[in-house]
């Protein structure tokens, strides 16, 4: 059975290559360990823009410590979220570039 599944996958990849398209495969395990508070994980990280100045926090609520301020236009890569209210990810531009933390979901735009 495993051999059949492997051959089907190989055939699909070959067909995609011949047709000029690609197959996207989600990684088996996330390279980044995600917080337990996450209850929705994206198969592929979502690139977002910060819509207004907002705190990057250590947890998914205002009671958590601020790790810095993200300014309007900063780029944020979202890995997961909590109830579509808070997003966990990594800052990819601006003064806090490289930091990971939580941002209020309402302040992120695609």
Outline the structure in words.
Helix content is 16%, strand content 37%. It is globular, with a radius of gyration of 18 Å. The chain is α+β, with helices and mostly antiparallel strands. The protein has 1 helix and 7 strands.
Question: What's the arrangement of secondary structure elements?
Answer:
Elements: H1 2-19, E1 40-50, E2 54-57, E3 66-70, E4 75-82, E5 86-91, E6 100-104, E7 108-109
State the main characteristics.
single chain; 110 residues; alpha+beta; 5-stranded antiparallel β-sheet; two-stranded antiparallel ribbon; 7 strands; globular; disordered N terminus
For the record, give the distance between the C-alpha atoms at the N and C termini, rounded to a whole number: 41 Å
Q: Which spans have pLDDT < 50 for at least 5 consecutive residues? A: 1-19, 21-31
The count of strands amounts to 7
Sheet/helix structural class: alpha+beta
- Silhouette: globular
Write a short abstract of this structure.
This protein is α+β, with helices and mostly antiparallel strands. The chain has one helix and seven strands, in the order H-E-E-E-E-E-E-E. The chain has one helix at residues 2-19, and strands at residues 40-50, 54-57, 66-70, 75-82, 86-91, 100-104, 108-109.
